[in-house]
Amino acid sequence: MRPYASAVAPEPFTIDVADEVLDDLRERIRSTRFPDQIPGIGWNQGTELDYLRRTLDHWADGFDWRAQERELNSFAHFRAEIDGAGVHFVHERARDGRAGIPLLLQHGWPSSFVEYLRLVPLLTDPRAHGIDGPSFDLVIPSLPGYGFSERPAQTGVNYRHTAARWRRLMQMLGYERYAAGGGDFGAGVATYMALDDPDRLIGLHLTTFELAPYTGPGSEPPTDAERAYVDQRRAWEEVERGYGAIQSTKPQTLGYGLNDSPGGLAAWILEKWRSWTDTGGDPDTALGRDFLLTIVTIYWVTQTITSSMRDYYDNRFLDDPIGPDDRVRAPTAFAVFPNQHVPEGEPPREWMERLYDVRRWTVMPRGGHFAPAEQPEAVARDIAAFLGSL
Questions:
Q1: Does 200 map to a domain?
Q2: For residues 100 and 136, is the Cβ–Cβ distance under 8 A?
Q3: Which residues are catalytic?
Q4: Would you give the distance in Å from CA 225 to the centre of its chain?
Q5: What is the number of structural domains in the chain?
Q6: Separation between Cα atoms, residue 326 and residue 218, nearest integer Å
Q7: What CATH number has the domain bearing residue 226?
Q8: Would you say the pTM of this structure is higher than 0.85?
Q9: What is the widest separation between alpha-carbon atoms in the chain?
Q10: What is the pLDDT along the chain (390 residues), one digit of tens a residue?
Q11: Cβ-proximal residues to 308 (8 Å cutoff; 6+ apart), any chain
Q12: Could you tell me if 93 and 167 are in contact, meaning their C-beta atoms sit under 8 angstroms apart?
């Protein structure tokens, strides 16, 4: 049987947003109706009013999308059609004359492929950046329904569904065996790539903990450290998980407002980038305001905020839960960053060893949920050290 009967070979792709789309965006930003805010409350009830005003002012009158577009287009972009839906990805091969290890890296929500671009020079030409390890052929896709990737017009586009699409993509590119990594939803997809087709996976490198292991009947009783982590996670969810509750139940309703208001979209996305990063509450300085607005602009110009949020619905209600027989056989590395949602609440190693064959566990001194953008050199060195050891 031909494995790619419903796939169309990749073609080069260039990001080119129409002028009228950008003009409409600026007009909408300048027409934003702001709510009030209780004086002195800061970020306690969500995105701070003064911060959002400053950000929108810059987005309308200081942010140069064309400059960002040129920078993005300096990478090798492609689009392919798999099962009737377009897939966007960056494909950068090893630049140092060595055969690169194929490595698929994938983002989560509310992020984009841009989060991983800072890794490209470090991993395609590690020697030039003082990194001891192999070089890599990098494949960085946009998840279905994010940015320039289409989401199939159906329910059930969950971790497992996307994992199957990425396996087809890697084989389309000629890679029979490869490594995979990512964070957030990307970590979940990478896990299912290993669960469903383990012989193709050289190894996994994950920067966040997306999937909880099976802890039902027949499992080992939890350790004290595991119980403490579960309690910390539960306490965090009581005050911070409201976004997930609505996105996993009524993403369509929320989408009307976010798809129509750039101010609302920026407030919704940037609040997460502030609270989930290890930036001391100042993501503009640590990551760059233009970097953050590039991600928000991609959601806006592609109108994909609603389709991206459907990941929460499909993975909550239409996914196969991890069961007692599930075990990731591929060697797995975790880069543990201190501000992954729950400060001082990272899961203990034994929690992840219930599901993964953990070969490397690196506790990083700095960084958070979006580690490839926050601490690209630390992530690149850990990837190179781990996959170079296999």
A1: yes
A2: yes
A3: 184, 312, 369
A4: 27
A5: 1
A6: 13
A7: 3.40.50.1820
A8: yes
A9: 66
A10: 234 446 778 999 999 999 999 999 999 999 999 999 999 999 999 999 999 999 999 999 999 999 999 999 999 999 999 999 999 999 999 998 889 999 999 999 999 999 999 999 999 999 999 999 999 999 999 999 999 999 999 999 999 999 999 999 999 999 999 999 999 999 999 999 999 999 999 999 999 999 999 999 999 999 999 999 999 888 888 888 899 999 999 999 999 999 999 999 999 999 999 999 998 899 999 899 999 999 999 999 999 999 999 999 999 998 888 999 999 999 999 999 988 765 556 789 999 999 999 999 999 999 999 999 999 999 999 999 999 999
A11: 109, 110, 143, 145, 146, 299
A12: no
The answer to whether position 35 is within a domain reads no
**Structural tokens at position 53:** 């005003």
Find all residues with CB under 8 Å of 32, minimum gap 6, and list them: 56, 261, 262, 263
Query: Tokens at residue 388, please?
Result: 């170079």
Sheet holding 178-182, edge to edge: 7-12, 77-82, 85-92, 136-141, 101-106, 178-182, 201-206, 328-336, 356-363
Return d(Cα 284, Cα 17) in angstroms, integer: 24
Q: Where are the alpha helices (DSSP H) in 150-207?
A: 159-172, 185-196
First to last CA, the chain: 32
Compute CA 159 distance to the chain's CA centroid, rounded to the nearest angstrom. 13
Q: Looking at the domain assignment, is residue 38 inside a domain?
A: no
- Nearest Cα neighbor of 208 from 285, 106, 123, 319 is 106
**Residue 38 and residue 40: Cα distance in Å, rounded?**
6
Question: What single letter denotes the amino acid at residue 189?
Answer: V
Distance from chain centroid for Cα 241: 18
E strands along the chain, which residues? Answer: 7-12, 77-82, 85-92, 101-106, 136-141, 178-182, 201-206, 328-336, 356-363
Residue range of the domain that includes 320: 7-29+45-388
Question: Minimal CA–CA distance to 7: which of 59, 74, 83, 70?
Answer: 83
Integer-rounded Cα Rg, in Å, for the chain is 20
Let me know if residue 122 belongs to a domain: yes
